[in-house]
């Protein structure tokens, strides 16, 4: 690994063809200098990376190509999956001439049988799968009202159902193995809504909820999931697909054969281009000829949304304004994704780029502020449930008590006051209408008289019972009117006084 990373241009001339190819795949533009936080235990001399087998869906996209290149540059094994209705299988297989570590495949993530076939072929070729990365995605720019049902369903089928198909079909293997890792590429659109990308944001929100829920379900099986949320990526990976290496001709016959091979390759390329053009035309017809803008398609705006300053055109205006000046390097992002596949403690989310960090931080801040603004609202009680105000604790209305307290309970506020302690005899025996409770202190030498109406019973000598009007404090009472409640208070002499 160290030799691979340190390979420079001077070593390339004397190295073997395979070493030369590995040097072209190694991370460049200072990507090797960045690293995940130490809390994740990223690849390092203390945690040397082991060779992993990657299965990358959406490998023909911008991010997928860069992750494929980064993994191969670090001596990992990659099965790169292109789109079956767009890419050509032969061209995908020729992207990297490393047959022992690279396999090109095609798949439609919307079709479960297609996903299952790709997983099976990868297992057959390399014997195992360690990391599954889903970089596939599809989006349409336009107002929610202007996007037809076909486009909306297609976005959900690709972004959400495609992710679910990949996870459901590979999870049994990871579960039996008690090891595995998913890197699901989401977006900042999965954390905040973007005008002009309503259905696309909805699919990303769905993916976020799916992964967050599954995180807890698969943790007992040592399976890790991470949502990768990149910001606007700059295409600084010009040499993403190295040209195929050819041996120099050593004789005239060899040169002639080489020329024939070149002619055949040119003819095959022309045929492939024609087929791709036909497929593209058919696809445009099926999808109402939506124009391509970056990796999104643009729906024609209706008259209410056709103005230059329409909020629904925000997404398109942003992409036009940035152009090729996106702030985040895709090479550095791919390097971090490779480290994410090899670190021991991956996070739930990995935000790539300053824009992603700031936008999601602002979103969470606004949510917290909104919660604080509205948390003091009181909602009307449901039918059958009445809110009890603080002042009503001692002023319960007339009605039947449903507790187990004993007493007169006739609603007149009269009570029998019997004081067994001579020190409190001043309260009297019969307070008419005073509404004061009957106090009865139970002692060991003065047991209760038994259970009967109008008397109380307490077997604990260290507890005095307060009976009287206002059974609302405990919700216990009996009889018609202000039911008598019961409150047990521990005597001070029996309390712990460790203070």
TrEMBL record:
Keywords: Oxidoreductase. Residues 261-270 have a biased composition (Low complexity). The keyword Endoplasmic reticulum does not apply. Residues 423-456, 466-477 have a biased composition (Basic and acidic residues). One of its GO terms (molecular function) is oxidoreductase activity. Residues 1-26, 236-270, 379-499 are annotated as: Disordered. Residues 9-26, 248-260 have a biased composition (Polar residues). Belongs to the short-chain dehydrogenases/reductases (SDR) family. Signal peptide: none annotated. This is Oxidoreductase. The lineage of its organism: Eukaryota, Fungi, Dikarya, Ascomycota, Pezizomycotina. It comes from Cladophialophora psammophila CBS 110553. Residues 384-422 have a biased composition (Acidic residues). It comes from the Eukaryota.
């Amino acid at each position: 690994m160290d030799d691979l990373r340190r390979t420079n241009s001077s070593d390339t001339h004397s190295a073997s063809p395979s070493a030369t190819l590995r040097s072209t795949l190694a991370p460049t533009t200072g990507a090797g200098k960045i690293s995940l936080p130490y809390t994740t235990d990223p690849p390092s001399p203390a945690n040397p990376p082991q060779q992993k087998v990657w299965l990358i869906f959406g490998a023909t996209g911008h991010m997928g190509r860069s992750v494929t290149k980064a993994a191969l540059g670090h001596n990992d094994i990659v099965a790169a999956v292109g789109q079956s209705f767009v890419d050509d299988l032969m061209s995908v297989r020729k992207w990297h001439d490393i047959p022992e570590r690279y396999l090109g495949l095609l798949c439609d993530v919307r079709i479960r049988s297609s996903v299952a076939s790709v997983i099976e072929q990868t297992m057959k070729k390399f014997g195992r799968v360690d990391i599954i990365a889903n970089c596939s995605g599809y989006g349409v720019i336009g107002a929610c009202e202007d996007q037809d049902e076909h486009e909306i369903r297609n976005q959900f089928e690709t972004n959400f159902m495609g992710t679910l198909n990949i996870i459901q079909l590979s999870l049994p293997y990871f579960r039996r193995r008690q090891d595995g890792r998913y890197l699901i590429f989401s977006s900042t659109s999965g954390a905040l809504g973007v005008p002009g990308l309503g259905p696309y944001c909805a699919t990303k929100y769905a993916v976020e909820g799916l992964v967050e829920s599954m995180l807890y379900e698969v943790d007992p099986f040592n399976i890790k999931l991470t949502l990768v949320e990149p910001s606007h990526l700059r295409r600084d990976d010009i040499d993403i697909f190295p040209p195929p290496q050819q041996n120099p001709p050593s004789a005239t016959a060899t040169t002639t054969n080489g020329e024939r091979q070149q002619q055949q390759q040119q003819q095959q390329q022309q045929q492939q281009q024609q087929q791709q053009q036909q497929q593209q035309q058919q696809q445009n017809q099926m999808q109402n000829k939506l124009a391509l803008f970056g990796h999104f398609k643009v729906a024609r705006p209706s008259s209410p949304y056709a103005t230059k300053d329409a909020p629904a055109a925000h997404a398109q205006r942003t992409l036009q304004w940035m152009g090729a000046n996106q702030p985040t390097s895709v090479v550095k992002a791919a390097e971090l994704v490779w480290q994410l596949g090899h670190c021991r403690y991956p996070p739930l989310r990995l935000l790539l780029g300053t824009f992603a960090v700031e936008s999601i931080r602002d979103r969470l801040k606004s949510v917290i502020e909104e919660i604080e603004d509205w948390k003091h609202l009181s909602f009307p009680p449901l039918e059958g449930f009445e809110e009890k105000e603080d002042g009503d604790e001692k002023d319960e209305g007339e009605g039947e008590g449903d507790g187990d307290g004993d007493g007169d309970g006739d609603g007149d506020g009269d009570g029998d006051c019997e004081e067994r302690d001579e020190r409190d005899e001043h309260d009297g025996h019969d307070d008419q209408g005073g509404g004061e409770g009957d106090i009865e202190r139970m002692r060991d030498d003065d047991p209760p008289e038994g259970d009967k109406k109008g008397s109380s019973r307490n077997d604990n000598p260290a507890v005095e019972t307060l009976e009287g009007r206002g059974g609302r404090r405990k919700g216990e009472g009996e009889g018609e009117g202000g039911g008598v409640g019961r409150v047990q208070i521990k005597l001070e002499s029996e309390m712990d006084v460790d203070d």
